Amino acid sequence: TSSGVFLLQMGWGDLGAFGEPSKETPNLDQMAAEGMLFLDFYTASPLCSPSRAALLTGRLPVRNGFYTTNGHARNAYTPQDIVGGIPDSELLLPELLKKAGYTNKIIGKWHLGHRPQFHPLRHGFDEWFGSPNCHFGPYDSTERPNIPVYRDWEMVGRYYEDFKIDLKTGEANLTQLYLQEALDFISKQQASQQPFFLYWAIDATHAPVYASKQFLGTSQRGLYGDAVREIDDSVGKILKHLQQLGISENTFVFFTSDNGAALISAPRQGGSNGPFLCGKQTTFEGGMREPAIAWWPGHIPAGGVSHQLGSVMDLFSTSLSLAGLQPPSDRQIDGIDLLPVILQGKLIDRPIFYYRGNELMALRAGLYKAHYWTWSNSWEEHSKGIDFCPGQSVAGVTTHTQEEHTHLPLLFHLGRDPGEKYPISFASEEYQRALEHISGLVQQHKATLVPGQPQLNVCDQAVMNWSPPGCEKLGKCLKAPESDPKKCSWPH
Amino acid sequence: TSSGVFLLQMGWGDLGAFGEPSKETPNLDQMAAEGMLFLDFYTASPLCSPSRAALLTGRLPVRNGFYTTNGHARNAYTPQDIVGGIPDSELLLPELLKKAGYTNKIIGKWHLGHRPQFHPLRHGFDEWFGSPNCHFGPYDSTERPNIPVYRDWEMVGRYYEDFKIDLKTGEANLTQLYLQEALDFISKQQASQQPFFLYWAIDATHAPVYASKQFLGTSQRGLYGDAVREIDDSVGKILKHLQQLGISENTFVFFTSDNGAALISAPRQGGSNGPFLCGKQTTFEGGMREPAIAWWPGHIPAGGVSHQLGSVMDLFSTSLSLAGLQPPSDRQIDGIDLLPVILQGKLIDRPIFYYRGNELMALRAGLYKAHYWTWSNSWEEHSKGIDFCPGQSVAGVTTHTQEEHTHLPLLFHLGRDPGEKYPISFASEEYQRALEHISGLVQQHKATLVPGQPQLNVCDQAVMNWSPPGCEKLGKCLKAPESDPKKCSWPH
């Protein structure tokens, strides 16, 4: 059975099936109607790189090294001056799937490090079309080079130079390129009768948001909605392609997101987290609860809904299970195999960990969530207009200083209070009962945790994408400055 | 064609189909899947009585008299010391439907006045089982009598005495009684082959929230969710009954709500307005945008979605149209006939008016909404812990003083900003263009408006439900105090 994972930066509330009022995602809604909707599905970090590392390793970022110790509880990722990346010691899903004869392709943003040793084709992927970092820019080639776009081992151009993004109009045809790549890859695999793993990690909904001309101005929601509509259309075309090739019943497909909607970019460039609190960068529900749909015609009963507490890390274990493989036994794996949930409707008891960098901020068990630390962002950043919770403010919860609650965690019941507005009284029996259970889980987790070497501590202008492999052929090699490694600055 | 209207106090975000994360409304979701979902549907007031008066008259409360002039922009309703009620001069939907041979029944809360002249059977209904006021209580029979429950002309008991509601556990079997009434009425009408109008206006989700024993503790959402589940189950049973009797294709059914979820009662007794701002009592989207589903098998295409700006007042005009009747031509009717929308997918250009008492607070045209006044509630009320926007605060928008913006209205684009968080810049071309259009609509509305006599100004302890008709037979007549009419106090 082949596997496909759509990983996008979209908020829980961006899909019609999840209550977006414009209801402009007919293909994703159809995917949900034909498959299974996960309502309690989480990413592993409120930021992109650590979530992606967790998805591909089945392990929490604090284990696989995708975190920082430069400051307490700071989100970190892989900008182009990052020195670190995915360690060789980590076993990635595509590396393991190779043993079962899979061909693995990544389309879109890799984000696990851009230096040669971190290249996706060194970590199990057979093919790549996309970029190592976010499509930020345009840059000037002096202070900062534009991000390269790779085909397999070599760059084939750079964003803004060879792959245009019009920041004024939001026009870019990248999603169409990425769609065509997916369709071609699937056709090729079907023709060769080889199982495949396709990781479609495109970034049209990440600021600077873009859409193709044919989608610009078509959404009620503005540019962000145009991008969502194009992604929705693309997902529909990929699923239809699988059906037309007659391989949909042999292909497990999962749609989800790497973090909550970036409310700092709203309303033009950011999405919606529905009824949840705050967004990307925070460990409130808006930062980490994700839209999620499993689709596998003939296997998953149509119209299913699951309240299984799920995680992007489960896609690691589930994809291995589909390939008849076991997860590695020499290390802690945080993902679980969701097949019993999906195929037999089981519910597996497991907690959800909400980390920000090196700190366990919160834990969810059942319908209860306990916050051990609360923080939105600092007063300093907030005073610059950076707001992760625009229009929302819950006293003592969306704090602008790092507040420790380890002795008396804030407890919420996410069933009757999905918006995390009403902490349960410390004096209540309910608090005592729920917290006793959760405290046990936290203790157990902390007692056995072996943190990985933090990969996101050091930044250096010299490691930026000055001269990626292949730059000579294109005449696009740039001169790197002297190496000057520094601690990266992670304000959030 | 018969008509059924389910009118409930539920928030936009309370249904699975509208994104409630627990997704516990399978029957309503199924109703939506078989019918048409309205995503931009509004009530006529952020409070119950005026909305109900508007639904049944097809006219804004400021026209039909369901408002107050005791204070500026105050919400008013019909507590049991209210002197006023629905004026005889108003023509109610059931009065008109009678001309086409309909039998009309109201089940549940009437709320258009409880003195004899306002009795629903004097205003077109043929049958009634329910109460004239909210099921507040229990009262002591001295300061305040418990609310009576009527069958047709006479009371058959009182809440808390003969119709139990356990405020501690939330247990009450009232929804089951109201369900059985509906099933029996439909059976009777089917047997007699008479067209009917059924107005099922039950109040289990209005604080104090209640549910039957079999539903208590079954929801992830606590007591409120239990009540929602029972209502969902009941709606499913009523629709199934229509199908089993073979009359579903001759019965137009509409589900909606009279105001947004009462966030002051959350989390135990209040619902969800999804991504919208604030709740009941306010003219933000959370106060007035409602869940809405039209169902009419064989006529409405399954799975339809409409962005028609709709109103509860449209149920008046639509029901008349279904009966082959014309709306009265001697008065302004604010409702429109939705049949072209529902059957042919048309979109009719019309504004939505957001009133609070005697003041037009805001107007929506297309995707733009202009606020002429902003107010959540007063600092005085807020300081008592009454919060209509818990956890939400948008500077200059969710104001605690009545802020006038008539010269420079706050403008929002509800497509990219459904949460009303980002006022559009006054200096922008978009602002100028949208506002020019909206100003014209406001001017036109104000120039032709003939306000009705305000019915909700005077309160008097003597008019409470001391001795409703039928009390003698039950030995339940109470002695009224001396009449002492006063201006009602409307703090919000």
Automatic annotation (TrEMBL), chains A, B:
Q: Which cofactor does it need?
A: Ca(2+)
Domain named Sulfatase N-terminal: which ranges? 10-324
Catalytic reaction list: Hydrolysis of the 6-sulfate groups of the N-acetyl-D-galactosamine 6-sulfate units of chondroitin sulfate and of the D-galactose 6-sulfate units of keratan sulfate
Subunit record text: Homodimer.
The upper taxonomy is: Eukaryota, Metazoa, Chordata, Craniata, Vertebrata
PTM-bearing positions, type 3-oxoalanine (Cys): 48
For this chain, the family text in UniProt reads: Belongs to the sulfatase family.
The protein depicted here goes by the name N-acetylgalactosamine-6-sulfatase
State the species of origin. Answer: Irena cyanogastra
User: Is S-adenosyl-L-methionine among this UniProt entry's keywords?
Assistant: no
A GO CC annotation recorded here is: lysosome
Note on how the cofactor is bound = Binds 1 Ca(2+) ion per subunit.
Q: What class of enzyme is it?
A: hydrolase
UniProt-listed Enzyme Commission number(s): 3.1.6.4
InterPro entries, alphabetized:
Alkaline_phosphatase_core_sf, GALNS, Sulfatase, Sulfatase_CS, Sulfatase_N
**What are the entry keywords?**
Calcium, Disulfide bond, Glycoprotein, Hydrolase, Lysosome, Metal-binding, Signal
What gene is it encoded by?
Answer: Galns
